[in-house]
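Hi support team,

I've been running sequence recovery on a batch of backbones for a student project. Most finish fine, but this one hangs at about 90% for roughly twenty minutes before it completes. I'm not sure whether the input is malformed or the queue is just slow. I've pasted the structure tokens below so you can try to reproduce it. Let me know if you need the job ID as well.

Thanks,
M.K.
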């Protein structure tokens, strides 16, 4: 089974408030690799108009982005409020 097929089965309850934030777009501009845009399995990070944009609604809460952003530690990551976020389906 492909990753896309597995992700299709994951359920989300998105909060109206984000649990992922870029601390400084200036630091993102200094980042050469922009690894947050390609390490996130849910593709929550995109570059638009020379800025990193975060779409938190499909976040898998794996924390990969905050580990990948080791140069500037520029991602403010926390778990969503209780009752919100990802619900994994096993099988």
């Amino acid at each position: 089974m492909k990753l896309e097929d597995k992700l299709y089965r994951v359920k989300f309850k998105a909060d109206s408030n984000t649990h992922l934030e870029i601390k400084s777009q200036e630091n993102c501009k200094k980042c050469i690799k922009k690894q947050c845009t390609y390490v996130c399995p849910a593709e929550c990070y995109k570059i638009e108009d020379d800025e990193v944009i975060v779409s938190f609604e499909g976040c898998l809460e794996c924390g990969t982005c905050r580990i990948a952003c080791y140069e500037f530690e520029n991602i403010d990551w926390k778990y969503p409020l209780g009752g919100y976020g990802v619900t994994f389906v096993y099988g």
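--
Follow-up from support: It reproduced on our side and the slowdown came from queue contention, not your input. Strands lie at 11-13, 20-22, 45-48, 51-54, 75-77, 85-87. No action needed from you.
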